[in-house]
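COMPLEX REQUEST
Ligand: adenosine-5'-triphosphate
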Amino acid sequence: MTALKPVRGTHDILPAERRRHRRVAETARAIAERYGFHEIATPIFEFSEVFRRTLGDTSDIVTKEMYTFTDRGGEAITLRPEYTAGIARAFISGGMHQDLPLKFFAAGPMFRYERPQKGRFRQFHQIDAEILGVAEAQADVEIIALGVHILSELGVLARTRLELNTLGDAPSRADYREALVGYFAAHRGALSEDSIARLERNPLRILDSKDRGDREIVAAAPAIADFLNQASADKFAAVREGLEQLGIAYRINPRLVRGLDYYAHTAFEFVTEALGAQGAVIAGGRYDGLIETMGGPPTPGIGWAGGIERLALLTGEPPAPPRPIAVVPVEPAAAEAALTVAAELRHAGFVIEHGYRGNLSKRLRRADKLGARVAIVLGEDELSRGSAAVRDLDTGAQKEVALAALAEHLAPYRDADAANDEGAA
Ligand code: ATP
Ligand code: MG
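STATUS: Structure written out below.
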């Protein structure tokens, strides 16, 4: 029965990998809070229009990658392929323009019909940060600094590189666009079919093409820097100065454009060489026109999204799960006491494994396999004295401890691994 396999491009995230993902999401969430971002959760599906109108009908996402279906009420629905459009929609439908500026953090699953490979899936997960209502370069600097801080906290900053570009304002982009159309039209015969389609509608997007032939042509294309008007150039200079002031290293990449229609001014990506072709771990930019395009009040915005799977691949070994304390009844008569001891210690904050069956040695073997650090052995003799044998499984040292004093005695073992266990992502 093929239905018993996960759908191509989707995965069961087993506990060890899930811990890695959680570390990425929770680290990002905690750092984002320090920067004044508040978490938002938008629906996993939206009306297809939300994405079609904002991402543009020439984007890869809209033309090839959306999971769209008609629901039972006849509505065209799309599983979200990215966060920004949904968050902008939430901003408009929630009438939040009185509350600007707003800073949102989010983390959750995304869906794109892509060709699955390392670091590229059909269901994947993103962390996301957005600042709404701030046109000043300060927001660009802050959101990039947040990305740097998260990568640094995850221990992967040294293996990434920040690439930066500007797309300028609308008049600069119009001039640039004209130059690009002229250039690409002269190379039309060598362009991929997708890029020929983009030529009329969105030539900037050709710069983002992954087609090898396109890339050769793109390498010699005009650069936006030569088409920026003064206001756009000044704005970009302010962003660069802010980054320099904070000691954030970057490289200007004149070919860097974001794949989506609503970007303007700053565009950036944190890329790595460590993941093969799937090099972008965090990508973002400014989208000052988006909210207005969607029918909301003109509201500047800037944000980024990071791929949790790609970041988790870079972070390496997941933190170890907390080492439990094993409660081990020696004979069946002790089972009742074991139940109570386990319940009390769990309420007191300990991680307790309660062996379900088997004799003493079988239960101790299981405790060992689970990495337990301590076993509380409940034997008839000790129980008759209202106590238990507490065995340190690392040293073998054993001590008789009154049941009433167990929590106090075990205090040094409580939550020693709490740092690895910070709630669900
Ligand atoms: P790529 O160039 O790799 O296709 P993209 O430009 O489509 O990326 P964005 O839309 O900017 O990616 O998404 C932000 C981040 O989400 C990417 O930098 C990447 O880390 C991650 N990401 C995007 N698509 C996938 C996917 N299919 N599987 C896993 N992670 C992804
Ligand atoms: Mg893509």
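REMARKS: The chain has a mean pLDDT of 92. The radius of gyration is 27 Å.
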